[in-house]
Design goal:
By secondary structure, the protein is of the alpha+beta class. Helices cover 56% and strands 13% of the residues. It contains 12 helices and 6 strands. The longest helix has 25 residues. The radius of gyration is 21 Å and the shape is elongated. It starts with a helix and ends with a helix.
């Protein structure tokens, strides 16, 4: 097998490791590409391509995360991970861990860990690397890695949300919620939102702050109902689509360009959190990006005309 073939077999794993460490599709893709370049330039072929490439992509990701933290602290408004529509890496034996670690809520919890804790948690708890492998990758002792893993696991367990166990029930509820939204049905939305529902939006100072911070069933239901019909009247489409392993949606303008995405947290039979990414810098991998300001102007004009 050639180096290219070995790398291509491992590409999805490498991306999935990097994405969970970084929370960014673009940065994860860059880390994987840099790992490939280093693999090509290694004069002696490693005994294990997986061990070599996992080590390189993890170390690159840790370095990128350290430099990214300062930028994220200065970020305008709430920061959310870049939405991922499909995880390219699949492992039936670890499907639960992979799905759980991909959610927006889990990625935001990972943001609170140190870069080393985050890397150790991802390698050990999500992808099942042994402690000897983890220690070699992050250049720490096995004992130190075990301590890092314990601290990370404790923090993740303390903040981990309780998702709907039955995925079919969860997905059906999400579709009912999206139908109520498309219809501007305030009562229908109230019935499906948790009392303490939160709507959090990531615009990054580069797009309208559409639903940046709204809390409570009445506030969120009325906001959503006010947006839905005017958005549809200007050709907007709300396309049901999984986002980060959760039920969600992609909003498109009349030309099919991406306006924003939603990821829905569903807990105890209600929508608890709506996380929307509208920052155009975070949507390019989803598809051609719309001018959200223009869509907002049209939507507001349609709303005024309706009134």
């Amino acid at each position: 097998m050639t180096r290219t073939e070995e790398f291509e077999q491992l590409r999805s794993l490498l991306f999935s490791i990097a994405y969970r460490i970084l929370g960014s599709v673009g940065e994860a893709e860059d880390a994987v590409q840099e790992a490939w370049l280093r693999y090509q330039l290694t004069p002696t072929r490693p005994d294990s391509a997986k061990a070599f490439l996992s080590t390189v992509v993890t170390r690159i990701s840790i370095d990128v995360l350290r430099s990214a933290r300062a930028r994220r602290e200065a970020y305008v408004g709430p920061w959310l991970p870049e939405p991922l529509l499909t995880d390219p890496y699949q492992d039936p034996e670890r499907s639960a861990e992979l799905a759980d670690s991909l959610s927006m809520a889990a990625l935001l919890l990972l943001e609170r860990l140190s870069p080393l804790e985050r890397a150790v948690f991802v390698l050990r708890e999500v992808f099942g690397f042994g402690f000897p492998e983890v220690a070699s990758i992050v250049e720490r002792s096995e004992s130190a890695c075990r301590q890092l893993a314990v601290r990370a696991r404790r923090h993740m367990d303390a903040g981990r949300p309780r998702y709907e166990v039955d995925r079919k029930v969860r997905d059906e509820l999400a579709e009912r919620f999206l139908d109520a939204f498309r219809e501007g049905d305030v009562d229908g939305l109230r019935d499906l939102l948790a009392a303490d529902v939160r709507m959090v939006g990531d615009a990054g100072g580069k797009a309208p702050r559409w639903g940046e911070r709204f809390v409570g069933v009445e506030n969120v239901a009325r906001l959503l109902a006010a947006l839905a019909l005017p958005f549809a009247s200007v050709g907007g489409v709300v396309e049901s689509h999984g986002v980060n392993g959760q039920p969600g949606a992609i909003f498109r303008d009349r030309d099919g360009k991406v306006v924003n995405t939603w990821a829905l947290d569903i807990v105890d039979g209600r929508v608890r959190t709506i996380r929307t990414v509208i920052n155009p810098d975070k949507l390019g991998h989803v598809g051609p990006v719309a001018d959200a300001w223009a869509v907002l102007r049209e939507t507001n004009q349609a709303r005024r005309s309706a009134d």
